[in-house]
Design a protein that fits this description.
Layout (H helix, E strand, L loop, with lengths): L1 E6 L7 E2 L4 E3 L2 E5 L5 E8 L2 E8 L13 E2 L2 H12 L5 E7 L2 E6 L8 E5 L2 E5 L16 H9 L14 E2 L5 E5 L2 E5 L18 H14 L8 E4 L4 H14 L4 E6 L2 H18 L2 E6 L24 H13 L4 E3 L4 H4 L22 H6 L15 H16 L3 E3 L5 H9 L2 H4 L3 H9 L4 H4 L8 H22 L2 H4 L5 H13 L9 H11 L1
Parallel strand pairs: 5-7, 15-16, 15-18, 16-17, 18-19
Antiparallel strand pairs: 1-4, 1-11, 2-3, 3-4, 5-6, 6-8, 8-9, 9-13, 10-11, 10-12, 13-14
Length: 512
């Protein structure tokens, strides 16, 4: 949502140059997109600068120099800014230092690092690498990434970069950065439903209302329509709100599952009249050197980013500026766990992860903020996925990750959440055939990942072992065991856990 450079003592006056606010050598640059707006004010020695998601019904605030205010108006403006319902970052500059506060949404969060007496921040963690004084890794977060045991956390793969998590405030004073975390959010429990409770209608109305709470242009939005329960319901709500002719798209699978996906999507597309764009996932295999990114990627990026980024680029070339996703749907209808899972042991991870890595996995709470209003795994997915959209010039919408949707899911009895009964029942109510609401074949990209591993991972793993990697040098990965993985992949004789070698390569590429 924004990028920053803040010196310990920025000037007292902030000016707007058409692209960013600046004060001396300090600057704050909003992400340039019609989904966002800026607001700023100044009173005496205090200045606030805000980048926020636009909301329908609110007149667009033009960017500019901070508005002069008296003390009372300034305090009211700051209080109102913190209550903004959309995603936001609020920066306040005073003689005591600079603070950065973020809202509840978690969209396009900012990563922060200090270099000397200067605070740097960006929505893309890879853009902060040149500002690091050293490349020291965070053992706990690296171990989580390797074991696919990630948490929504202030920690990142680099010990000197932190993520500003939802509702948190970062304070920068005299070259020191500290983070204040919020109080745990209150969560609801399942309620008893009346016998005639219109659950599906309530779900439809709420999803429509959540979409209406976002600013977007219907002729400039596309929906990611994989054909799964979550994206399908978001797509159908968009069609209900705006009619036929909206844009859609997806990565397509191969084999029998791919044929099923094709039929299911065609049924949805014919119903809603979507203008569809598809790419065959097999043409964008993970690890394929032909699809190496042109710019550095962070360690949290998705493994299928080559195909997904290409789809976004196609949309952007067609004038798309927003993308609606189904992220958060799994968690919205998930059942609460009976207990926390125990820490992973050497028996739960691939043999090429060292004892040092397994030990680092033991601290499950390190860097984990207090309970957020929605699922922490949803917030992690939003934080990890958003940079891909922003690099394409597209603002993502996550309607199923809205706190109102999450609260509605918590209210539902387990019988409505199990196996996504609510999402499936809505499709049935709209008249879709069983193959759409209850597909017999499982649709995922496991075959695509397997093909990429077989074709490209042996050589890539051997290059990592021959040229060196911080994952090996710092003791996270056993080189002999990883070499055995390369041999097994070459023979197509995979053992349990070998597919996770793809994530070793992903993390290695982000770290070097």
């Amino acid at each position: 949502m924004l990028s920053i450079r803040i010196d310990t003592s920025p000037g007292r006056s902030w000016e707007w140059n058409g692209v960013r606010w600046h004060s001396g050598s300090s600057w704050i640059e909003p992400y340039d997109h019609p989904a966002l707006e800026t607001w700023s004010g100044h009173a005496s020695t205090r200045t606030f600068l805000m980048v926020r998601e636009r909301l329908p019904g609110h007149a667009l605030l033009p960017p500019g120099a901070p508005q002069e205010m008296n003390g009372r108006a300034y305090e009211a403006a700051i209080a109102g800014a913190r209550e903004w319902a959309g995603a936001y970052h609020l920066i306040e500059s005073t003689p005591a230092g600079t603070s950065i506060t973020t809202g509840v949404r978690g969209t396009a969060p900012i990563y922060l690092t200090v270099n000397g007496t200067t605070l740097h921040g960006h929505w893309d963690i890879a853009r902060l690498r040149p500002q690091l004084l050293n490349d020291d890794l965070d053992p706990i977060e690296v171990a989580r990434l390797l074991a696919l045991a990630g948490h929504y956390s202030t920690r990142t793969a680099w010990s000197r970069i932190c993520l500003l998590t939802e509702r948190s405030t970062a304070d920068f004073h005299d070259g020191d950065l500290t983070v204040r975390l919020p109080q745990p959010a209150q969560h609801d429990e399942a309620r008893e439903l009346a016998a005639d409770a219109p659950v599906i209608a309530a779900y439809e109305q709420l999803l429509d209302a959540v979409l209406a709470d976002h600013h977007y242009l219907p002729d400039r939005i596309a929906v990611e329509l994989s054909g799964g329960m979550d994206s399908s319901n978001v797509a159908l709500s968009l069609e209900h709100c705006h009619g036929r002719g909206l844009a859609s798209g997806a990565l397509m699978q191969g084999g029998e599952a791919g044929q099923q996906q094709k039929r299911r999507r065609e049924t949805l597309i014919n119903y809603a009249g979507f203008r569809d764009t598809t790419l065959l996932a097999a043409n964008y295999l993970p690890i394929d050197p032909r699809h190496q990114p042109l710019t550095p990627l962070g360690p949290h990026e998705e493994i299928y980013i080559a195909g997904h980024s290409t789809l976004l680029a196609r949309w952007k070339a067609d004038g798309i500026l927003w993308a609606a996703t189904g992220v958060g749907g799994d968690e919205m209808l998930s059942l609460p766990p009976l207990s926390l899972p125990p820490p992973l042991t050497v028996h739960d991870v691939p043999p090429w992860l060292t004892a040092f890595t397994v030990e680092a996995l033991g601290d499950q709470e390190a860097g984990v903020p207090p309970a957020p209003p929605i699922s922490d795994s949803t917030l992690r997915a939003v934080a990890c996925g958003t940079p891909m959209y922003l690099r394409a010039g597209i603002w993502p919408l996550y309607p199923l990750a809205d706190p109102a949707m999450w609260r509605f899911g918590q209210w539902l009895p387990a019988t409505w959440r199990e196996n996504k009964r609510l999402a499936r029942s809505r499709l049935q109510r709209l008249g879709f055939p069983p193959e759409v609401s209850h597909p017999p074949l499982r649709e995922n990209f496991h075959a695509v990942l397997y093909e990429g591993l077989i074709r490209f991972a042996p050589r890539a793993l051997r290059e990592v072992l021959s040229t060196g990697s911080p994952l090996v040098d710092d003791g996270y990965v056993d080189p002999e065991e990883l070499s055995k993985v390369a041999d097994r992949l070459e023979r197509q004789q995979l053992e349990k856990g070998d597919v996770m070698a793809a994530h070793v390569l992903r993390l290695h590429n982000a770290l070097v």
